[in-house]
Prior knowledge:
The structure holds two protein chains of two kinds. Helices cover about 30% and strands about 20% of the residues of chain A. Chain A is α/β, with parallel strands linked by helices. In chain A, strand 4 and strand 5 form a beta hairpin. The longest helix of chain A has 18 residues. Chain B is mainly alpha-helical. Helices cover about 40% and strands about 10% of the residues of chain B. In chain B, the strands form four sheets. A two-stranded antiparallel sheet of chain B has the order 1-2. In chain B, strand 6 and strand 7 form a beta hairpin. In chain B, helix 8 crosses helix 15. The interface between A and B is large, with 32 and 40 residues.
Amino acid sequence: xxxxxxxxxxxxxxxxxxxxxxxxxxxxxxxxxxxxxxxxxxxxxxxxxxxxxxxxxxxxxxxxxxxxxxxxxxxxxxxxxxxxxxxxxxxxxxxxxxxxxxxxxxxxxxxxxxxxxxxxxxxxxxxxxxxxxxxxxxxxxxxxxxxxxxxxxxxxxxxxxxxxxxxxxxxxxxxxxxxxxxxxxxxxxxxxxxxxxxxxxxxxxxxxxxxxxxxxxxxxxxxxxxxxxxxxxxxxxxxxxxxxxxxxxxxxxxxxxxxxxxxxxxxxxxxxxxxxxxxxxxxxxxxxxxxxxxxxxx
Amino acid sequence: xxxxxxxxxxxxxxxxxxxxxxxxxxxxxxxxxxxxxxxxxxxxxxxxxxxxxxxxxxxxxxxxxxxxxxxxxxxxxxxxxxxxxxxxxxxxxxxxxxxxxxxxxxxxxxxxxxxxxxxxxxxxxxxxxxxxxxxxxxxxxxxxxxxxxxxxxxxxxxxxxxxxxxxxxxxxxxxxxxxxxxxxxxxxxxxxxxxxxxxxxxxxxxxxxxxxxxxxxxxxxxxxxxxxxxxxxxxxxxxxxxxxxxxxxxxxxxxxxxxxxxxxxxxxxxxxxxxxxxxxxxxxxxxxxxxxxxxxxxxxxxxxxxxxxxxxxxxxxxxxxxxxxxxxxxxxxxxxxxxxxxxxxxxxxxxxxxxxxxxxxxxxxxxxxxxxxxxxxxxxxxxxxxxxxxxxxxxxxxxxxxxxxxxxxxxxxxxxxxxxxxxxxxxxxxxxxxxxxxxxxxxxxxxxxxxxxxxxxxxxxxxxxxxxxxxxxxxxxxxxxxxxxxxxxxxxxxxxxxxxxxxxxxxxxxxxxxxxxxxxxxxxxxxxxx
Lengths: 298, 530
């Protein structure tokens, strides 16, 4: 087997740096509060714990950075319906970015329902703005056709220019059911930085999602699994389909994060096409357990 | 003869009030958008609610009124007592015409020639009679020429989208230049307060825009052409207010017959070469008084309704009135026997917004104002061409290839001034079928091309999805056996929202379409057993 420089260093790193920060963390809340205040508290503490277990936001964001935070704001649904990322996860990340010295934090998504409905209804717009981030509907002028390096299918596509130009990208999705891919997790959430005829992606969803993931390569991936949508995704709407997992996953390895996220829906990572494809392309490791994830009980 | 005179305070006051109402109209227009969460700006239907023509035709045609429409009784009362102040001081469309009329300029002589009353001004009364006769027989098409509906529709469907597109294009260009340092903050401001979230596109925009431009251009032929010759609301107010308590007087002693009072007359209310004043044509703009070099023109309180002004007669002629009535009634009878209007047949493409009444009742109330079209957050509601017959021209029809009916939205039901689209709670709305989706297996990828897709199912918003799959083994052109998910529609769950059509990969004529069959509002057009 031939080893490239990166693979070699990758193999070596855990051995050389046993005390190095982990690349995956899983924070779980012991109780499962029902009151809105209790859930907000849970979400905030879990988010902080998960990031802290990775070594803190300072590992990802440096002084003066321009940061793009990409939650799932795709649907005209309330937070308890678990179709969009929990607003408190987003707000906590924004606060942590500023604490780490970020100059500017922008929160945005190219949604499936109309943005003027999804941004407020999801609670993300007001939460993000309160935390100091820019959060306004994406600007159609800023989708630019660009060459997607390393793409297998999407050789050229409209991508939001500001995301590509940002110093740091934080992808923060939610765990939910999806009839074609099995689950919407972190990598698939990146479809929200693309414009154009995204509905064509579905004809080869594993490759298109992997293409995007390989192109955007977020520095930090966070998955909201406090509430998960277990059926009728990705839109949902029926509260009976929403399950509590009381978990926030964070990591630098987007494939590993998604691989673990899938298990929260009872799906094996090898059954999610884009996870398998991402692993095969070397975007990350779907055998997340091999990364010795830091597990935090809060 | 053109001695310089000073514009009077009263004229300045009138201009200020006109400006205020025009700005209010435009502000309410911009406020006719989604506000978090699921509400519209307050008072957006105000101008339609003070429009007595809308109230009268609605009541005649449908024998029912939305409570807010009773506000227009105030307009009637003011007009009855004091005359057509509404046209001169309040009507925003009138103000727009006034604005363009004052741009005419030209020598005073030319304006004098066209300033006075002409008998073609009677045309508007016949227009009114046509509409009223039709309304009596249940056909209400007054929205075609009601000034407020005409203005709002023109703005919503033609002017605003064009303006929005122009501004976005300009700033798209500056974005890539060094000007962007200054232009981007300006753009950001416009985007938040003036521009549409997504560029609106409406079918029918060209015709509606052309007509809008034409009636504006006609101001260069005659001052306030629309108001003088066409406006059926002006005609109604003229009839109601032809014997007002505020009256113009010309002093025969002071008047040296210079006729300057005619130069800027907006309504054509003076008879050339006489001293008589036509109250039914007067907008109380006070230009005549302001322009008169000899202070011969004054307005004063009339003492009694019993002594009307000398020339308050409309002189419409019995034969002409009868002919107009017959024209209106005849048109109405033709409309009423059209198969679509009588619900003998249904146009599959005629999908109406949720809350739309049954077709016959709907048509008797809809004034084609365009409020629902403006407010729809997905740009899904368009002015109909002939989908509902000629009678339904410019009434709202859903075009799912452009927008769709947002599941969590009731905005169109909130803005309709007449209740042609009745107010709905969100829970009510989510139970209403505006049509049903059907799949074209010759176009749908998993059926026709052995490709995976599922985009329609993914977007389906009902809590239990109305699109389900049958997994099928199909053969690709390479001879490979693959399993694809072929979508099916559950007719009980489907509400016809059309997001499936909107998001379908196949453009133009999508592989999943919504037709009006199954719509709740016309039970006879149903399909399910129960």
